[in-house]
Amino acid sequence: DDSDDDEPAKKPPPKPVKELEKEVAKPITAPKQESGGSSWNVNSWHFEESKYDKWGEERLTQLLKGKGSDVVIEHNDQEFDFKFSLSISKLEGECWTHIRKGKKVTGYNYEMQ
């Protein structure tokens, strides 16, 4: 009887060591930075500061310019209408972001008149 059922299944020959090394040794790359640090600041670990003074002044002026409100106050059966408007004559200060140990912190300090 010439049946193949009695013979054990043949295994493929083992791969050469060099081919195994190629499969196992894949290049390691740094994870993509999510905190927004510089390319030299891997994982945003080291202290890094960015200044946004000019942008902060422009943005505050844009948000606050010409803003106001109307308020009606009732007292002793009388109504008083008040109209408030905001004008900026002087705006000084600073705005910044810090990155340290992968955490981003935003801060500002402005004085208005």
Low-confidence stretches: none
Neighbour order of strands in the largest sheet: 1-4-5
SSE string = HEHEEEE
Shape: elongated
Question: What's the N-to-C terminus distance?
Answer: 106 Å
Determine the structural class based on helices, strands and strand pairing. alpha+beta
**How confident is the prediction overall: mean pLDDT?**
76
Helix proportion: 10-25%
Summarize the structure.
The protein is an alpha+beta fold and 113 residues long. It is 18% helix and 35% strand.
Can you describe what's shown?
This protein is an alpha+beta fold and 113 residues long. Helices cover 18% and strands 35% of the residues. The chain has helices at residues 17-24, 53-64, and strands at residues 48-51, 68-75, 78-85, 91-100, 103-112. The strands form 2 sheets. The protein has a 3-stranded antiparallel beta sheet with strand order 1-4-5. Strands 2-3 form a two-stranded antiparallel ribbon. A hairpin with a 2-residue loop joins strand 2 and strand 3. The chain is elongated and about 110 Å long. The relative contact order is 0.19. The model has no long low-confidence stretch (mean pLDDT 76).
Give short descriptive properties of this protein.
two-stranded antiparallel ribbon, elongated, alpha+beta, 35% strand
